[in-house]
Structure formats: C-alpha cells, structure tokens
Design brief:
By secondary structure, this protein is mainly α. Helices cover 76% and strands 0% of the residues. The protein has a single domain, classed as Hydantoin permease (Orthogonal Bundle). Helix 3 packs across helix 14 and helix 7 crosses helix 12. It is globular, with a radius of gyration of 21 Å.
C-alpha cells in the first residue's frame, strides 16, 4: 500500500519507503519535463537561427539533465531532501536563505501553472470564468500534494497519464514537423545567439534542481534514479522545446489553440491534467523547503496554504515576463548548484556524513560557498538579458557556462585558502 503523505518530513527516508526504481524515475521526470510552459519557452528560441536553436535544445537539455541528475544523486545517496543536502557546503543559515528563495520561485511556478491550466480549460470548454477555473485547479493541486509523491508515481503517472502524454506528444510533433518545419527554418531570426538560446533551454532542468532530491530520496538505488532522471527529463525537454520552436509563438492561448487543432479534445484534456503534477511538485517541495527551516510545521497545512496563495496570485498576476522569470531562476540556482556539485563530487568525493546535515558537525554558515554563490549569481546577472548593460548585438558566451565555472572554481580556491589559513592559525 502506498502511503498518502510522508510522515518523516525532512528526516532521511526510512529504507522500507525507498521503493522507487530507475523506471519509476524515468516516468516521473518524463512527466515533470512535460508542459505547455515548455512549449512557450521553446517558442522564444525562434529569435535564433533554426539550427543554432536546435543545437541549443539538444545540448542544453542533456547538459541540464546531467546536472539535475547529479543534484538528485545527493538525495538518493543519503535519502534526504534537497535543502538538507546543501547544508554541508552552505551551512544551516545558508540553507535557510536558499529555502526562502526556493519557496518564492515555487510559488511563482505554481501560479504560472494554474494560469496555464485555467486558460486551457477555458479554451476547451468555452466557459470563460477565470477565477472559477483557478480555484478548481488550486483544489486539484492541493489534493495531489496531500497524497504525496509515491502515490503520484505509482498510481497516476506509471499506470495512466504518462503514456497518453507520450502518445499525444508524438502526434503533435509529427504534425508540426510536416506543417511548420519549412517555415520555421526559413523565418528563424538572427536576434538571439546560440549561448543565449542555451541559457533559456538549460534554465528548465536547472529550475528543478532545488526540488530533485525531494523525490529522488525515495530511490532504491542511486544509479537507477540517476539514469532514469537523466533519460526521462532529457527526452521530454528536447521534444517540448522543439515543439515550441516549431510553433514559433509564445502566447499560451495561441499554443493551446494550435495543439487543440491537432489533438482530439479528450487527449488534450488528459495532457493538461498531467500538467497538474508539475504544480503538485512545486507545492510539495515548497512545503519541504519550509520544513527545513521550521521543522515542526505541518506538511499538509503548508501544502494547503501555498496552494491558496498561488491560486490567489493567479487571479491577479499576468503571464507576461515569463522569459525573464526563467533567466532569474538561472541567475539564482545555477551558481548555487555549481558550488554544491563541486563540494560533493570533487571535495567530499560523494561522501556526506549524517551529522554534517543534522548533527553536531553542522556548520552555521559556509562562507566559502556563500561568497562563491554570490560571485556566480552576479556574473550571471551581468552577462544575461537581465542586466541594464546587456547589448544583444554584441558577441556573447551566455550566462550559464561562465556562472557555473566561476562559482565552482572560486569555491575550490576559497576553500583551499580557508583551509591553509586555519592550518597556519593553528600553528601560530
């Protein structure tokens, strides 16, 4: 019997509940890579030459999914959620800051998802009462959150939803390739460089990195979770970014109309219901992130509260500015995980002790990690379209790769200098 809601909060998952295998993670991350928002993000790439955009989609999806899977390995190795796994590098208070930022972005993602679902429902039914649909989907998301991730994977995705999604996705892509490919190649713009396109693609898997261990901690084996996450997310991210590129316009209403013209209404409806799991994942992880700060908060109450907040915001917030939202996520979390992956895989060689995350050896603030995170985030900001000094006509190497490299190398350097200073201080 699958438990409805985990009772252990942020504590390591007990072995008897680590029941998900590699195929389960393929299903889960395939599903989380699906979304009308991904179509919308893919449409932004029509400002780039077509083959540059296509290359960015393939490289960005695979590279981002590798980073996502590596971040998830920390959770599956130690059965801990994401914001607990960063404590050995960032310290207790550093993890609190990351948790607050994560909750903010997750409420934002959930708000966007409710907006998308509401628009789609109005298009399908011709019932144009926005706030009613917002409330309906807010309630559905809350129920998914209360049932928890094991129910989502075992009872909903693997048995039903994901297979219809894959089938409908194939139908959509075949139709778009036959009808839109020549036009997409001929009218593709030159206003966006390859590296800016790469930033937009890689932002999607990166946006899931603060959540990945919340789900991969249920893995029987880390290798299965790593491979399943990598393959599952890579495939759907590539397919949906490609679909958005072929559509060529970012307006969600237009995307929904185009897809509805390709699919039967029932199949599109199931595809939209599958999109609910993206919002569920955001709300569930927002609750887990909150519990990493306030351990005694009730998880069910948090899920209900965040769902209400996102539903209310969806009534008043416009979906405009989504591209800037993606870039902002990259600016915050790409350098954070550049530091974390360097700490775990290079410095600690994949070995965190339990008391580094929960016990007496838990540091309050990881200054080298915090400084390196800040440096990487500032660099990302300066090199991205978020910066007032950004000039699109100038050659660019994007923001993602420089931010990752600078945050990682600066962390190695600062950690080394910090260690040498402590040794010298002890000798004196």
């Amino acid at each position: 019997m699958v438990p409805k809601l985990p009772k252990w909060g942020i504590d390591p998952v007990p072995p008897k509940h680590r029941i998900l295998g590699g195929f389960d993670y393929f299903i889960l991350w395939s599903s989380l890579g699906v979304g009308l928002l991904v179509f919308s993000a893919g449409s932004f790439l029509s400002d780039a030459p077509f083959y540059h955009a296509l290359l960015a989609i393939i490289i960005g999806s695979i590279a981002g999914s590798v980073l996502l899977s590596m971040a998830g390995k920390i959770g599956s190795d130690h059965a801990v959620p994401s914001l607990i796994g960063i404590r050995p590098a960032f310290g207790l208070y550093g993890s609190y800051l990351a948790a607050i930022l994560n909750v903010i972005q997750l409420i934002g993602w959930t708000t966007f998802e409710i907006l998308i679902l509401s628009k789609a429902a109005q298009q399908l039914t011709n019932i144009h009462v926005t706030f009613v649909w917002n409330i309906i989907f807010g309630v559905i998301i809350t129920l998914f959150g209360i049932f928890g991730p094991l129910f989502l994977v075992k009872q909903w995705l693997s048995k039903f939803a994901i297979w219809i999604v894959y089938g409908s996705t194939i139908i959509i892509l075949i139709s778009l390739l036959s009808q839109n490919l020549p036009n997409a190649i001929s009218v593709a713009g030159n206003d966006m460089s390859f590296f800016v396109a790469l930033d937009i693609v890689i932002a999607m898997p990166i946006s899931w990195m603060p959540l990945v261990s919340d789900y991969n901690r249920f893995a029987r084996k880390s290798k299965g979770a790593f491979v399943g996450t990598l393959i599952g997310f890579s495939i759907t991210n590539i397919l949906f970014y490609l679909g958005g590129l072929l559509l060529g316009f970012g307006d969600i209403s237009s995307i929904i109309i185009s897809i509805q013209a390709i699919l039967f209404g029932f199949i599109l409806l199931v595809m939209l219901v599958d999109e609910v799991d993206n919002a569920f994942a955001d709300i569930y992880s927002a609750a887990i992130s909150s519990q990493s700060i306030f351990h005694n908060l009730n998880q069910r109450h948090l899920i209900i509260g965040f769902s209400i907040v996102s539903t209310i915001l969806s009534i008043f917030i416009s979906i405009e500015g989504y591209e800037q939202f993606l870039l902002l996520i990259g600016a915050l979390f790409i350098p954070l995980f550049g530091v974390l992956l360097t700490d775990y895989f290079v410095l600690k060689r994949g070995r965190y002790q339990n008391d580094m995350m929960y016990g007496n050896n838990l540091i309050k603030i990881g200054y080298p990690a915090m400084v390196s995170w800040f440096m990487g985030a500032v660099l990302y900001y300066l090199l991205s379209q978020l910066s007032p000094a950004y000039i699109s006509q100038l050659p660019t190497i994007g923001s993602t790769i420089p931010s990752l490299i600078v945050s990682s190398l600066s962390y190695l350097l600062i950690t080394n200098l910090h260690f040498k200073f402590k040794v010298l201080k002890n000798k004196i």
